[in-house]
Amino acid sequence: MDLWFQEKQTPHLSMGCRVKKVLVHKNTNYQELSLLDTNVFGRMLILDGYIQITEKDEYIYHEMIVHVPLMTHPEPTSVLIIGGGDGGAAREVLKHSSVEKVIMVEIDAEVVEICKSYFPATANALKDSRLELIYADGREYLRNKEDEFDIIIVDSTEPVGPSAGLFEPEFYQGAYASLKAEGILVAQTESPFHNQDIITNSYTSLSKLFPVTKVYLAPVPSYPGGLWSFMIGSKKYQPHNNGLLQKEWQMEGCRYYTPQVHWSSFILPPFIKDFLQTANK
Fold it and tell me: What is the DSSP secondary structure assignment for residue 74, as one 8-state letter?
């Protein structure tokens, strides 16, 4: 049998890959979950029809969503991860010796359990004694919290289902309040080719809160368009010229992130600058 998975990336575009075996397919309390073994990307986690991580390229996404903000901050000790049930973001955060406490708030316990079984390279980080795993809605968790975290990482799925509220202005306001005076927020903000509305809406919301708001990019082959955007909101530090100049590069085990990649990821092509400028008008 010739089995293929297709992700419908837009109403007019889909990406397909050949599937060797369906390992898991179920409905959790929050979303449809599939775990596939594919020819090109290896094991692949899919939620509500959207690719979340693959064995082949997860390291790019996780290294870039984590090390850019943590290398920007001179001494991050407390980190909140919202989402991140596969454990990849936690793995990268825990590479930083200054980090004393990581809280990971994931809404769906079944995602975590599946990843423990099928993605040990990411989920093994969840065993670290510095990490506290809380099963809850990230929006509710942030309510009434103030001045608690140096870094907040929003490692969410696409803005559908349980993650939809993580792209709203109210959520960003709560995140801002829960950050310390030198705090930094980072979020994944989808494809600059197919999701410009998500990027501009997030940029508008963060720009109203943070004195420093920047978009940066990384290639993630399994994601729509192959080019992915991230957004950083910083209360004090410029992500492209501060932290890296003050901190010695000692990270081990990175396959994509380097200080040079960090710097270059903030160099945006004109078409992205154009739609960001339009959003600010």
Answer: S
- Please state, as a whole number, how many other Cβ atoms lie within 10 Å of the Cβ of residue 256: 16
**CA atoms in the 13 A half-sphere facing the CB of 28:** 20
Rounded to whole angstroms, the Cα distance separating 150 from 158 reads: 25
13 & 139 share domain: no
Q: Do residues 91 and 207 share a domain?
A: yes
Q: What confidence score (pLDDT) does residue 160 get? A: 63
Closest CA to 87 of 32, 56, 128, 49: 128
Q: Which two tokens stand for residue 16?
A: 């397909």
* Host domain of residue 12: 3-54
- pLDDT (0 to 100) of residue 253: 85
158 pLDDT band (50/70/90 cuts)? Answer: low
Which residues participate in catalysis according to the annotation?
155
pLDDT digits (tens, 9 = 90+) for 46-81: 999 999 999 999 999 999 999 999 999 999 999 999
| End-to-end Cα separation, the chain, in angstroms | 53
**Residue 132 near residue 94, CB atoms below 8 Å:** no
User: Residue 176: which CATH number?
Assistant: 3.40.50.150
Q: Do residue 117 and residue 41 come from a single domain?
A: no
Task: Using the structure block, give the residue that is written with the tokens 């420093």.
Answer: 212
pLDDT given at position 245:
53
Judgement on whether residues 34 and 106 belong to the same structural domain of the protein: no
The H or E element spanning position 169 is helix 169-178
Question: What is the rounded distance in angstroms from the CA atom of residue 18 to the CA atom of residue 206?
Answer: 39
Whether 34 and 67 share a structural domain: no
Q: Report the distance separating Cα 47 and Cα 60, nearest Å.
A: 19
User: Parallel, antiparallel, or unpaired: how do β-strands 212-219 and 13-27 relate?
Assistant: unpaired
CA distance 182 to 118: 37
